[in-house]
């Protein structure tokens, strides 16, 4: 077997090697079939296998090749805009269970890493959301109050405490959650795959699914080289649902807009500066729509990223923008050199609520991470596995909806990058609470 080529990211350069698994060949049967070898699919496979079920994962490229292996690696126990009250108002009891799942999502991920001793550069150092304006301080306080009411350890930090956490007075206060942190995402995906295989799961890489359908009491999933039959099916392809095989699930694919997310890494930061800049090694992403985010990796590189409007010379422009943003917040860095720059899709939808869909009898899917898929996708994979193995839906955090495709998806996809201009304008105004 030959390895699949990965984008030249820092994670591809540092994650432990994984020998490729063979493609699906011939006809096979399993209890649960999973399409997609990212965090959700692998988490689901682990959950099924650890409870004695048979499960097979079909991955179109290689484990972690998509968004799960290309993101910033921040483990964040909240979503971008889907606040707890909105979940409960929209979905009732299922929304309440979803709030609990979201709030527990970082612990679910880190507990899994610890339980199976996964080699993933995992640091549960906390996640911090600093406020970029005085009005956002009130927003942070409101979010702290909300999550505390639901039983989670959110903490409000004053401007002085924020300065101590970050080593900068660029922000005004913020929300801290000690359950968050960061990982090497590709290393985690590969470690999750190994754990699933050790538990008895089967993984087939280089196996893009051409079609799936319900035939009698089974799901029949076809690739170019084989057929997999299963009682239950989990579709876990998220932002890449329409990328490898556009005809796989077109209604789902057209319900999100895949948006390129750019990540990058600095040179390793010297020890003296590292001890004063973000000394607690938390993961940080602030309150801007045009987000500023950063954290250290295991080699003391700052991992950051950004976005720019337009398609001209994007890599160089986003590299320069991210370097300026770091230098603005941390003048002692100067304008840091970026040694690695890479990108991958995130799945955005119109209201930034992740969606759970029923494909048919014993068939499940979710889509729309909206940039928060690391912790959430891992936690949701466990939940989907429980649904696929018979847990009563009324016990699960699975508020099911029908897909809502964008009316003119191709046009929406082309204009989506201009959304950044609206976000930048919104960042200049204070929110109404």
UniProtKB/TrEMBL annotation:
Single GO term (MF): oxidoreductase activity
- GO cellular component terms, A-Z: cytoplasm
Indicate the segments forming the FAD dependent oxidoreductase domain, all copies.
Answer: 31-386
Which key words are in the record? Oxidoreductase
Protein name per its UniProtKB record: Glycine/D-amino acid oxidase-like deaminating enzyme
What species is this protein from? Sagittula marina
